[in-house]
Amino acid sequence: MSSDSYLPMPAPTVPQRPLSSYKLISYDIYGTLVDWETAIVKLLQPLVARIPSSSPLSQEYQDSTTPGSEGRIQLAAKFNDVEHELEAKNPSQRYDELLEDIYLRFASDLGVDITDSTRQEARKFGESIGTWPPFPDTVDACQRLVRHGYKLVPVSNVDRASFSRTCAGPLKGVDFFRVYTAQDIGSYKPDLRNFEYLIKHAKEDAGVEKHEILHVAQSIFHDHIPAKKMGLASVWINRKGAGMGGNEAIRGIHDRGEVGYGWRFGTLGELADEVERERSEEGK
């Protein structure tokens, strides 16, 4: 289990029952299965390197490539803020195009001149999704969960083409039952429409009822807050060193009772381990 002793477990959204009783796992992908943060931070470094030395931001984002560093946490938080603002403003925009706009907005906010070279970097940034690396435990854990009978369904804030490249590359070998993207739905999480779409299509495509869905995600903001609002059981994959939100922001969300996940693990592999432990106990 994850060692977040500073956070008590929240009151679960739905009465807790064995993990093995669920039929479909809906996933957040980027941050849960794919290490988006490491990729994003690395790809933003050309902009960070060009922050004017007179700007206080040159110190704020210093050492931002080091996991767990304050600079990395601040850079990831800044990315989240800009991403959410532009997703809310342009809910039907394809995610690869949105990433281009995020990069250019970042450049402007950091005081970096927008040149032809910057625009080329922005295009490459938008095209990079399929190259973002998986976490080491991802593929094996997903394969184990499929063997235990779960249908795996991504509910992702990306476009179809970008997710296809991820499936063909970093997540090759993972058997997804269906894929529901923001492009299919017409909005971005945490919009509740994305979760309404999941519940509706889980029933239509797999014959799975809402109470048989287990939502597995890293993002508190994009996934666990709306999962509670929708009455979905959920699992927080709280990966060590992830900078999204920061400890104080996450503590505040817990203190206000905005989340109700029933399980907390440090990796997806730990979730698969727990499922196998349950299955073993059932066998006895």
Automatic annotation (TrEMBL):
Keywords assigned: Hydrolase
InterPro entries: HAD-like_sf, HAD-SF_hydro_IA, HAD_sf, S-2-haloacid_dehalogenase
SUPFAM superfamilies, A to Z: HAD-like (SSF56784)
Record protein name field: Haloacid dehalogenase, type II
Native species: Cladophialophora psammophila CBS 110553
Pfam (any one): Hydrolase
A GO molecular-function descriptor: phosphatase activity
Top-level lineage group: Eukaryota
